[in-house]
Amino acid sequence: MGTLSWLEAIVIGGLQGVAELFPVSSLGHSVLIPAVVGGSWAQDLDVTSPESPYLAFVVGLHVATAIGLIVYFWRDWVRIVRGLVTSIVRREVVEPEQRLGWLLVLATIPVGIAGLVLEHVFRVYLSRPEPTAAFLVLNGVLLLVAERLRRRSELREPEPATVPLSPVRVSAGPGGAAHRAAAVPTAEELADRRLAQIPVGRAMLIGAAQIAALAPGISRSGSAMVAGLGKGLSHTDAARFSFLLATPVILAAGVLKVGDLAGPLGDGIRPQILVGSILSGVGAYVSVRFLTRYFETRSLRPFGIYCIVAGLACLAWFQLR
């Protein structure tokens, strides 16, 4: 029977929901925090052991995180799924929702294949404290470099001024009744239209960047955002695309191993899994709500600095203890 304390479940569950979407690597923190605390935490929360109950716990957290994202983006996913269905039925890719749906499908393929093939190797051989801390430092460096390159690009080529939306026009219909001649799209719909214009090859490169997150310490959302910024997306659009991309990837990672929850690995810790998963789902919802607004005016720099400082501090701690 596995062991997992309530405190461990609460801390790691809340951390997963936040760190999965913040560009600071949830997996990296899930490895480093138990290693820093030591004792029973290091034993109970060992992702490298195939018999660890922590693996069943992580499955629940991933599913809950994906649910939190789906709840936040549910209107977008309704449009995207509807676009995919109509695209298949009509054999066309005309509407923005249809194109965005196929872009997300194609961009998910590289990381999906890599995850199936390499996940075990990365987890067993790289999910140790020292390499994880080093990868966290590297993650921070990449975030800062991406911001510096983005800044230089903006100075050379200022973004064109956005054209303000025309107000809703009201005209007289038959019998003198007024009706809306044109509806102003929402900010989310406009964002999805911009994302739908990304070239296929560029979208797949952004999706493939998530493969780096198989290494603990490298952020999934951070790597996708860095790739998006490098391909000319704004912070807001890069963040939105990375969150939409993350949803099917995180959900699939959990669903493919959901059998662990019902098997021996889940024995004795299912109440802790439930509590941790609830915290993870709520944390994911609150985090994505915060970050979508944050990146309207802010950058990746604070997260890059944090990753470098935290990674170096962990490396120093592991050497001195």
From TrEMBL:
Q: Where are the transmembrane segments?
A: 54-74, 100-118, 130-146, 241-259, 271-291, 303-320
Write the Enzyme Commission number(s) for this entry.
3.6.1.27
Reaction(s) catalysed (UniProt annotation): di-trans,octa-cis-undecaprenyl diphosphate + H2O = di-trans,octa-cis-undecaprenyl phosphate + phosphate + H(+)
Is Cell wall biogenesis/degradation given among the entry's keywords?
yes
Give the top-rank taxon of the lineage listed in the UniProt record for this protein: Bacteria
According to its UniProt record, where is this protein located? Cell membrane
Where does this chain mainly localize? membrane
Which keywords, in A-to-Z order, does the entry hold? Antibiotic resistance, Cell membrane, Cell shape, Cell wall biogenesis/degradation, Hydrolase, Membrane, Peptidoglycan synthesis, Transmembrane, Transmembrane helix
Give the Pfam families listed for this entry: BacA
Broad EC category = hydrolase
Instruction: Please provide, alphabetically and separated by semicolons, the GO molecular function terms listed in this UniProt record.
Output: undecaprenyl-diphosphatase activity
Mode of membrane association: Multi-pass membrane protein
What family is reported?
A: Belongs to the UppP family.
Q: What does this protein do?
A: Catalyzes the dephosphorylation of undecaprenyl diphosphate (UPP). Confers resistance to bacitracin.
Add the further remark from the entry: Bacitracin is thought to be involved in the inhibition of peptidoglycan synthesis by sequestering undecaprenyl diphosphate, thereby reducing the pool of lipid carrier available.
Its protein name is Undecaprenyl-diphosphatase
Source species of the chain:
Pseudonocardia yunnanensis
